Amino acid sequence: MQSLSMHSGDSDSGQPRAKWRRWTKVLAVATFVLWVACDSLVPVQGWDDSLGPVIPHDTFPANCSLCHTGGNWQTMRQDFAFDHAKETGVPLEGAHKGAACLLCHNDRGPVAQFAAQGCAGCHSDPHRGQLGRNCTDCHDQRTWRPSEVIAKHDRTRLPLVGAHASTACFRCHPGAQVGNFSGASPDCDRCHAGEFSRSSYDHVAAGFTSDCQRCHRPVGWIPAQFSHPQSFPLTFGHGNRACTECHLAGVYTGLSTTCSSCHTDDYIATRNPPHAANNFSTNCASCHNTRGWGGGNFQHTPTFPLTNGHAGRACTACHTGGVFSGLSTTCSSCHLDTYQATRNPNHVTYNFPTSCEQCHTTRAWGDGTFTHAFPITTGAHRNMACVNCHTTSIGTQFECIQCHTHRQSAMASVHNGVGGYQWLSSRCYACHPNGRG
């Protein structure tokens, strides 16, 4: 019984204690909530948390009105001005000049501690230390955007030229958008493997090199500028043509360099002159060049060189009937009609030889020069028409008296006793070597 009374007494005395403990907990929670509410909802001295942490004012003047207005704590005086360079020795330039004070001056510690670290004191490095700690190599104080990047890129293994200069950084540097520029290779196929495999020319099947710059230029992927082997240079008409015009079926190696391998159709179709019918050589280069198929320049045989009037004529002007071999080289074989039609002098009447080259050259038919047996190169005889003396077709042995008979009386009175007075040309030329008095 004694033990039961004791337990009963303890039970009665424990109820007030339990209530006290519950009220103590409630009071503690209420106190904590009130403290949090006051700390987060009621700005300290009217400070707005959206403006950032409170700047430590330990060294500031005690007169708050020098900077703040009386209305609220976060509004600065309109006439507030602080000469940062004068007061601190650190001038604010560019974007730093308009930055909020709290971006540098806040409760994370003394600003000098962070300023001593340079740019990294305030600006986190998105490049993960791969581009060095000197931000001013790419950035300036006016804007965070990098400047003169293309010029600076020239110091790398891949200077940015042509289309590369306008390409977004992340196209080559996948991590560029988050400041990671590592792992970029200067090899063409690291970026252009797709173009290499998708090209209209099957680069893979043809065994082309993956070194794109051998054929392509940074200014544009098309057209390719392949340096053809020196054994077959692409000049004039062969240049700037699509590769597939000669390299059919995607074959780029082991092709013949002979003209006929590409130009057999042109050879067969040519009619002036007909190449196939006359068994012309299929070595087109012997007459043609890469400037153009027309106007072939055939080197005529040395036995009959084409000079002056003979040069520059159509082959068919002489090679009639499509005959190009076994032709006579005598002048009359081509110029007989001209020979027969000539009247000054009449070549047929005077039985002139048909070997035209004795008097004529290839310059022109009208400038014939005959070597006369009777001297006619000086005096009045010079440049006289043949018919002036050759009035008939008779091959006469000329004497001076035959033409100068109208002066016999005058000559008789002057030449009496001169060598027996025989009117022979030999006697005339003894005193008149040039046909003059």
Written overview of the protein:
With 437 residues, this protein is mainly α. The chain has helices at residues 2-41, 84-88, 111-115, 149-153, 188-198, 203-206, 260-269, 332-341, 400-403, 408-415, 425-431.
Straight-line distance between termini: 197 Å
Structural class comes to mainly alpha
Element-level helix/strand string: HHHHHHHHHHH
Total beta-strand segments: 0
Instruction: Supply the number of helical segments.
Output: 11
What is the share of helical residues? 10-25%
Relative strand content: under 5%
Features of the shown structure:
11 helices, mainly alpha, 437 residues, elongated
Write a concise synopsis of the structure shown.
This protein has a domain of about 60 residues. Helices cover about 25% and strands about 0% of the residues. It is built from eleven helices and no strands.
List the helices and strands and how they pair.
Elements: H1 2-41, H2 84-88, H3 111-115, H4 149-153, H5 188-198, H6 203-206, H7 260-269, H8 332-341, H9 400-403, H10 408-415, H11 425-431
